[in-house]
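Proteins fold reproducibly. Consider a sample protein:
=====
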Amino acid sequence: RDRSLSSGSPLPEPAQTRTPPQTGRPTGAALSMAALERCLPGDVELVLFDMAGTTVDDLICGEPLVIAAFRAALRAHDGSEATFDQANAVRGYEKREALRKLLSSIRGLQDAAAVEESEVEKLFALFKVELDKLIAFMDTEVVGTSATFDALRKRGVKICVGSGFPDHVVQGIVKNMGWAVDAAFSSEALGAGRPDPVMVTAAMERCGVTDPRRVVKVGDTVVDVEEGRNAGVFTVSVLTGTQSRDKLAAAGPDCIIPSVADLPLVFQWPQSST
């Protein structure tokens, strides 16, 4: 496949699996059942998964897709340079809000509301252009994602995915992955982004689930945890993204696991059904 941007500059082959942010940390098969707490009830009916960094290996030239697009958009906008940490800090937010916060951080503003809406819109348009250049290369899932989907589906659990990416990007990634999910949501289509719980409530409505304590939100950012808590559902953090265990733990998820591959291990399912 031709891996070049519209500008004609070539892209190197991306890594086929996401490199864990902490070296030496056990992942997937390296963990036994005893190593993980069964933090989720056995009667869960729906799991809503985040995408980039959680179920989608989004590394482009060694950098997460959204961070690469943020930084490229800023350079095209006014030549600004955002550090990795600045861009990483706003991961998980609806992308207009993320860009507003990022501009505020770069400029040392105390209040992100000081950034004018017209500038945010211009920057968001550039961000979408950069994202569209890169989206074709998003065709590798985080290892174990499909196996986890299959394990959940065998137990009658509904599976949804969602993201703060524009809707066409969300639908394009799902198509690239070949996933059969019950629904795929975007902040753009729903009119609000995390930590607003609208994506969780939309998934519940789509799947006919009424009890929030039978729902789990899985993600790799603090904002994913906040979204789940605002919806009153269980929350699980994974360590396949770029936010540290300490930062995620401070947000108070119900449990933290190495990756989505480990999710089936933390349900209180009967031993005979695992």
About this structure: The first strand starts at residue 46 and ends at 50. The CA atoms of residues 6 and 133 lie 7 Å apart.
